[in-house]
Amino acid sequence: MDWLRENNHWVFDLDGTLTVPVHDFAAIRSELGIPSEADILDFLAALPEAEAARRHARLNEIELELSARTVVAPGAVRLVECLALRGARLGILTRNTREIALVTLSHLGLLDYFEPAAIVGRDEAPPKPEPDGIRRLAGQWGADPTATIMVGDYLFDLQAGKAAGATTVHVDRTGSFRWPEFADLAVVSLDELLPLIEPAL
């Protein structure tokens, strides 16, 4: 696992990765009148502009309410601290808005570890699974996307990472690891990454 110790460009998903999951996506779809099988952002993007704006506003309200209930994931603080101490560049790539990501990171006590420009939401780049956000962050850092690590808990995170050429880490608290073809490493908790990176300090 030398690549974990040597790589200094890390991109994290936010909800469910740096946080304990709190989103009930079935309830969110129901609240917004979105079919149960539809991707929320794709569905909203296909609506007429005025209707999309109305439902996006409600989605933002829901996500802001949820941000106040978030709890930092086990191992997240120590992992981010360790990476920051060794000079790693750290980014957030979320399907939330950047504004809500800022609120969430502040609530978790993690905001100071991320440069403002390195927090990329759905309005700054096409949402995952598109790889544009990873490429944007790598470009800001003067790095090739293949020299980045994408850490996430969902398929879209891993697909975005692979499409960008990044190395991917799947965090799955259930241990079911449903998408092994998209993950270079799979862990149940961020705690598992700590002994793999700490020798580099």
TrEMBL record:
PANTHER family membership: HALOACID DEHALOGENASE-LIKE HYDROLASE, SUPERFAMILY HYDROLASE, PUTATIVE (AFU_ORTHOLOGUE AFUA_4G13290)-RELATED
TM annotation in the entry: none
GO molecular function (one): hydrolase activity
InterPro entries on file: HAD-like_sf, HAD-SF_hydro_IA, HAD_sf
Organism: Geobacter argillaceus
Keyword set includes Hydrolase: yes
Classification via Gene3D superfamilies: 1.10.260.80, HAD superfamily/HAD-like
Name this polypeptide is given: HAD superfamily hydrolase (TIGR01509 family)/HAD superfamily hydrolase (TIGR01549 family)
SUPFAM superfamilies hit by this protein: HAD-like
Record keywords, A-Z: Hydrolase
